[in-house]
From TrEMBL:
PROSITE patterns: PEP_ENZYMES_2. Residues 9-361 form the PEP-utilising enzyme C-terminal domain. GO terms for molecular function: pyruvate, phosphate dikinase activity. It comes from Ditylum brightwellii. Gene3D superfamilies: Phosphoenolpyruvate-binding domains (3.20.20.60). PANTHER family: PHOSPHOENOLPYRUVATE DIKINASE-RELATED, PYRUVATE, PHOSPHATE DIKINASE 1, CHLOROPLASTIC. The lineage of its organism: Eukaryota, Sar, Stramenopiles, Ochrophyta, Bacillariophyta. This is PEP-utilising enzyme C-terminal domain-containing protein. Pfam families: PEP-utilizers_C.
Amino acid sequence: MVSPPAITGNLKTFMEWVDEIRTIDVLANADTPGDAREARKNGANGIGLCRSEHMFFQPERISKVRQLILGDEAQQEDALEELLTYQRADYEGIFTEMDGLAVTIRLLDPPLHEFLPSLEDDDVLTALAEQLGSTVDQLKEQVKASEEVNPMLGLRGCRLGITKPAIIEMQTRAIIEASLNAMSSGVDVKADIMVPLVGKVEEFRNQAALIRSVAAKVFEERGKTCDFRIGTMIEIPRAALIAHEIAKEAEFFSFGSNDLTQMTFGYSRDDVGTFLPSYLSQGILLDDPFVTIDTEGVGQLIKMTVENGRKVNPSLKIGVCGEHGGDPRSVKFFSNEAGLTYVSCSPFRVPIARLAAAQAAVEKS
């Protein structure tokens, strides 16, 4: 396996000059301690997006996630306990790698059906039926009942947290316990907890109250406390329109630019390939809006959110965590026009984003 080249020698010196010039932080999207290590090597100022659900897809964990979704109450409690152990270890590893830098953990976002086995996968269904003391036919009925017509607009994000609070309680406990464990080892932990898919301030308020309640319980159990912040993703157009209300409650915003683009255009990311080449070739679109930010539509929502959010909370930290954060032209918009605090992108794109941010600063000056 070929490793990416290290940033050393003259390149390291050049990137240090770049960092002196840029006016926007560059963070990374990282889901594991290994990702975090790579991000730090590439000069990331922190983790702007840690997708907690990505940890669930590992083979030894997915069966417990399925048990959580399909099992009875006792089986669900058992699954939550085991997942808590996994998540706590993951977060502690990430905090340790990012010692002194911010780590933003997004709570569970995708619809639960993504974790369920295919109805055609008889071997997996048979093993799961044995695990749950059920039958394959019963499991198939449960899986079918979990299917949604439009899952990306269905039971996911904070809707999942509101209807199934035990999952968020487990994740919050894992984050807080991992923070305390890492701190006791001398790690400087800066944890941010991010609530996904908020469209109403009441949704954020509900989840923030749950997070604080769990944290208070852990603090009482451990006899010690830690600082953390609670913020939200801005990925639904309605959230952008009521940013002034959400900013009264949230300590930071992070634009989920992929979903915000999808919902603003009404384009499905999964199906855009059926018409995007024609749109580009005929000049209907000049750029792929999922690669380079649409400054006329999505960009205006972003600017409005920043302006209205900071009117009520001048110190509001605002970033973007979609892959637009690693696109040079998008970085220029985020830095020079939108006034974001940071961009966050894949670890391997961090050097590109650092350079783009410096170029944007030079152009603005």
